């Protein structure tokens, strides 16, 4: 084919100012249509060769520039053949696949040193640890740098050598003859697996990988106010990469365990306090333990709080203690400690107690009562439901 009289732009059906992406798309469309495996036209093979040659020229910036200036982009190669990346008398099938499917084949040897994978582990926390923050030891099983070869993968005194199969290129080319010429396909070298080098004397500790599995303990700092599902990001604490490459990151997912007294609701803590019927009627003050009581290092004055119960308190009443809840994550202040009061009616009375209660009922004219239906709010029954669920 005379390249000087060939209009490659016309063959691909693109304007002379077409972008590289437009040229690739045009070639991909025509190549898939004219490929010998799918085409039925008798001259499809010859058209396919023209399209491939056009893409070889227009798909390469230097060759395209030379062609646009009137030069010979194929360097005066064999008539009707392909030079450069397609080779004499054929074409590189790897380039065809790249163009048709938008893939970029690897070129040259790849490095043995690669970044390691990220790792995810889970850590259980007590409610007080999540609320006030702590530092916890965590056992992790990850790949670490091989201490024997320090990541090289080779025995002491040896080192990787150039692969004799691919001569250090990391890939090999296979040529297959067809009616449209020699088809060349490139693939990673089967001997060195694409590295371009082989390790004749692998390290006995890591078998040439440059890393080993190891259990280790790291200290994880937990900020105040975390909750279940939060993750702590520890950079470079994940898996060490192959060949002693840099470590990935470690993500610690937190799971806050249930507490026997307190239930967490966002930044608030909720608890249930049972009080006698007489205390509810007369009013009183009750000292309760706060969540700080679970901390060994807490000040004594912070471990208790006083709940003021007004006279005539009804069952289901919620008393809020501000600033006694959970510290807000990455912010200031704390939520409330909500105390839901459950009034307990005595189930066993002795003779004297029964007489006194009967006298009280007579004084209050409550010996005979009529049932009364009272409208209620959703919040009242919601608190009762939560309170009984915590029993």
From TrEMBL:
GO cellular component: cytoplasm
Gene3D superfamilies reported for this sequence: DnaJ domain, Heat shock protein DnaJ, cysteine-rich domain, Urease metallochaperone UreE, N-terminal domain
Residue intervals passing through the bilayer: none
Cofactor: Zn(2+)
Subcellular localization: Cytoplasm
Function: Participates actively in the response to hyperosmotic and heat shock by preventing the aggregation of stress-denatured proteins and by disaggregating proteins, also in an autonomous, DnaK-independent fashion. Unfolded proteins bind initially to DnaJ; upon interaction with the DnaJ-bound protein, DnaK hydrolyzes its bound ATP, resulting in the formation of a stable complex. GrpE releases ADP from DnaK; ATP binding to DnaK triggers the release of the substrate protein, thus completing the reaction cycle.
Complex and partners: Homodimer.
Entry protein name: Chaperone protein DnaJ
